[in-house]
Amino acid sequence: MSRQSNRTTDSKKMNAELFTLTYGALVTQLCKDYENDEEVNKQLDKMGYNIGVRLIEDFLARSSVGRCQDFRETADVIAKVAFKMYLGITPSVTNWSPAGDEFSLILESNPLVDFVELPDNHSSLVYSNLLCGVLRGALEMVQMAVEVKFSQDTLRGDNVTEIRMKFIKRMEENLPAGDEVHSRICVPC
Amino acid sequence: MLTRLKTQVPLFSMNSYTKLREKLKLSGLSFASTHSHVIRLGRHSRHNSKMAVCIAVIAKENYPLFIRSVPIQNELKFHYTVHTSLDVVEEKISAVGKAMADQRELYLGLLYPTEDYKVYPHLIKWYVTCLHQFFSYQIVCILLYRHTRYGYVTNSKVKFVIVVDSSNTSLRDNEIRSMFRKLHNSFTDVMCNPFYNPGDTIQSKAFDSIVSAMMVQAS
After folding, report:
1. Chain B partners within 8 Å of A27 (Cβ)
2. DSSP type of residue A123
3. What tens digit of pLDDT does each residue of B138-151 get?
4. What is the interface pTM, i.e. ipTM, of the complex?
5. In whole angstroms, what is the distance from residue A101 CA to residue A72 CA?
6. Shortest CA distance from B204: residue in chain A
7. Sheet strands (E) in A14-160
8. Is A150:A164 a contact under the CB 8 Å cutoff?
9. What is the pTM of this model?
10. Residues of chain B contacting residue A23, judged by C-beta atoms under 8 Å apart
11. B102-126 b/e with 16+ CB inside 10 Å = b?
12. Are B152 and B176 in contact (CB under 8 A)?
């Protein structure tokens, strides 16, 4: 099934509520299966990682952005191009650390959490942890090791959702250390 | 049960009349005497009349998912009220039958009005001693307020009941419809919460705030 022709056109429209409900069903099923918030967070991160290592190819093909020169450019591309393309929102990039290796993405609205209210017995659940995994996996495929976590979450009562991203190191070309190993065309550094 | 007084106006001397007014004002009731000599005491409403007194959401199996009433009232009475209005709802649903099957939602409109009576024993004693000067004992029951109930049913057989205090201006149909629409929308949002299991009682903060905005402010 050739999908090359679709790459350059607009992504197919899908109902946002179906997406939100699907993600919600996923999280609640994980909660029922693991019954431990920390374990669920880890699983969401792993799932996000697997999505991210595949999504990066789609992103590079659709957006045709070139190689980023530094971390700041990476941050801008993530916020203005990637989030806009996949979630339809444009977070703002703020709170750069003095060394320039850490920044925050502030999301005013998070489409994954429409209609969601966390019950009291799941207070340590990071509901949108999948996003952290996606970002981590995608950046690992372009040879950047990052640490991603949520520092503020509207579901916990904060005003905005804030994702904190920290640059760890630039990686040598190698295969991803995820759950599944695929052969990939390595992009030279 | 509202009795007529057997004498002509003026009923009391000015002194006791003003005293009665004051006493009633303290209990939050207003006093009006009409020319037909029937004393009616209505609840002194100091708040916006466009508000509900009780809101209930009932599941298709006819048990309540959510009931909230103004706290100064007797809550159990409201539970009974809502329960009895379910009978009327069932009647209306079955009466509509196949003819209206294509209508998306059934706004049932006014279910039935009631007049509630409540006896205030401490006031009675005082009132009766006043009257005693003029004529024999009368038992006075005080017409407290009128309740009208409105119903709304969705296609999934979830019922919404709103009880309003209509002692002041009566609400227009449009306003009731818009209240129901807001309720239905926030109920849909509650259903979309993945942590909510259909059939549970509704414990959502967003839903609570919508309902509180519609309720009478407790004075």
Report:
1. 194
2. T
3. 444 444 455 677 78
4. 0.72
5. 8
6. A117
7. 92-94, 102-107, 144-152
8. yes
9. 0.68
10. 194
11. eeeebebeebeeeeeeeebeebbee
12. no
